[in-house]
Write a structure and sequence with these properties.
There is one protein chain. This protein is of the alpha+beta class and 93 residues long. It contains three helices and four strands; from the N terminus they run βαββααβ. β2 and β3 form a beta hairpin.
Length: 93
Amino acid sequence: MIVAISRFRPPTEQAEQLVARFQDRSRLVDRHEGFLGLEVLRSFERQPEFLLVTRWRDRDALRAYLQSPDFQVAKAASVADDSTFAMYEVVGQ
């Protein structure tokens, strides 16, 4: 299993709007082959950091999504230009 994590810290005044957007997300990613789940985490800091965590069956499934039109839509709607992205292989549970 592959876990992909995007980390970003939007301006404080945008945090609640961002939470609402994630709660009402389009769910386009959900229909992609190999997609296993998504969580959005928010820290408790005054200017919260967000983690967008997705789980994938394998790297090929994640790559296919990253090359899809659905990903381009999600990327265009992003509010964070300074986000970081990393992929991890699950090696134990």
